[in-house]
């Protein structure tokens, strides 16, 4: 899944149904109409403040969908490493490997899509971390 494939409105709608939250509660929480809620469900993207509110009420980190996507599809490059020292912006290491990320990486390895070396280099995953995942997966 890349950024183009993330339909956040659909995912929010799915989670809201799972949580069985009444539409009137959502309308009150967002201070909007049921038509506005439906419009959010139909939206491919949502404003970050709105998404934060959805994350709170549905107790789900929707931002994680995007950060996982960055981990998988935007590996750190040499330029980023060099520029992080001169940037005034916070720098976050890509070390939050969820089960989905680990499964994705191991599947590429098992299917022969990528070698261990390619995965280590392209996704900036430490060799020891990859080895631990492989050993755990075999159990």
Automatic annotation (TrEMBL):
Protein name in UniProt = Transposase
